[in-house]
Amino acid sequence: MPSLSPAIAEIRLAVRTALANLPEGAAVVVALSGGADSLALAAAAAFEAAKRGLRVTAVTVDHGLQEDSAEVAAAASRAAQELGLEARVMQVDVAGEGGPEAAAREARYDALREAATTIGASAVLLGHTFDDQAETVLLGLARGSGATSLQGMAPMRADNNGVRWMRPLLGTRRETTRAFCVAAELDPWNDPHNLDDRYARVRVRERVLPALETELGPGIAAALVRTAEQLREDAEAFDEMINETIEDIVEHAEAGISVSVPALAANPAALRNRIIRLVVDSEFGVSLTRTQTLEVARLVTHWSGQGPIDLPGCSATRHGARIVFTAFRR
Predict the structure, then answer these.
(1) Can you give the pTM of this predicted structure?
(2) What value, to the nearest 5°, has the Cα angle with vertex 318 and ends 313 and 321?
(3) What is the pLDDT of residue 97?
(4) Angle between the N-to-C axes of helices 174-183 and 130-143, in degrees from 0 to 180, rounded to the nearest 10
(5) 35 pLDDT band (50/70/90 cuts)?
(6) What is the DSSP letter of 4?
(7) How far apart are alpha carbons 181 and 110 in whole angstroms?
(8) Distance in angstroms (rounded) separating the CA atoms of residues 18 and 22
(9) Is there a single domain that holds both residue 170 and residue 311?
(10) Given 216, 246, 272, which residue is the final one in a domain?
(11) In this structure, what CATH number is given to the domain that contains residue 183?
(12) What pLDDT is attached to residue 1?
């Protein structure tokens, strides 16, 4: 009996571990672009799911951003069927704020969410790798968007519908997914956008990380991923502290929500700012920038009678011993 390729063994183990807690017979969505990362993920999911009685559907999202996008999506769908998976292609309209990368990502996740709902999936598997994580952390550092951004991508998170979004390959190098495809005789698609330096992630991948490795020595990607893991641990501790505190200091207000000023003042700045961001995000579904968060915090620490602060989707006003967040009227 021929020995199993180390790359195939590594990726199958990662997928097996991710699927271990799903109930027998559960439905699973695999996001499949046709590239090496997602193709290796789909192949491993097909192998592992068959042993556990899981039903896996590969979903390919056609963004329509390239002339041959329909053909690429169809080829990915055929590859999934050859692996023994159910396959779907979903066409999306890429439009939104934040540039083409952000708009495409938002449209893709919306499509995967829709597919998971239609199928009744318990989990969605995403093919992000160790290298993707390092790039994400470095991009977050460049944006200066704080510890939340530097945490990178979570290995698993559950959405409001209880669907688990899993990234089994976050501990796997990109070169391993390519080796998997070679060993499994799979023919991955090479996305030309992955070489287009108009995109920030491509510049980080092709220029910035190699330059850092050259100037500072090897291991930069691993150091970035370790940083993300440590910050995620810190964030989980903060979240526990916030959850223990927030019920006692938050009250519903007319057209919004309010927070106790003395309670905010009694907390250290890091915790106070997290509470402010969490309250606004949970109530109004928007994320505050650091500048906006600090302006709200000044209503607690440096209040001299200043008026309302306009924020995305709401305003913040100090009324006596409370900060009141009120939704804008439409």
Answers:
(1) 0.81
(2) 135
(3) 58
(4) 150
(5) very high
(6) P
(7) 28
(8) 8
(9) no
(10) 216
(11) 3.40.50.620
(12) 46
Upper half-sphere CA count for residue 42 (Cβ side, 13 Å)? 31
Q: Using 50, 70 and 90 to split pLDDT, how confident is the model at 69?
A: confident
Q: DSSP secondary-structure letter at 195?
A: G
Range of the domain at 146: 6-216
Is residue 146 domain-shared with residue 287, that is, in the same domain? no
- Overall average pLDDT of the 18-36 stretch: 95
Dist CA 267 CA 271 (whole Å): 6
Q: How many domains does the chain have?
A: 2
Q: Which of 216, 243, 274 is the last residue of a domain?
A: 216
Q: How is residue 122 annotated by DSSP? A: S
199, 101 in Cβ contact below 8 A?
yes
| Contact indicator for 133, 232 with CB cutoff of 8 Å | no
Nearest to 127 by CA among 161, 153, 151: 153
Helix axes 290-301, 269-284, angle to 10 degrees: 110
The beta-carbon contacts of 295-299 under 8 Å, at least 24 apart in sequence, are: 296/323, 297/264, 297/269, 297/272, 297/273, 299/261, 299/323
Mean pLDDT of 40-65: 93
CA distance 11 to 4: 12
Give the separation between CA 195 and CA 182, rounded to whole angstroms: 21
Tell me whether residue 249 is in a domain.
Answer: no
**Chain position carrying tokens 């799979």:** 186
Is residue 225, in this structure, part of any structural domain at all? no
Is 175 in the same domain as 310?
no
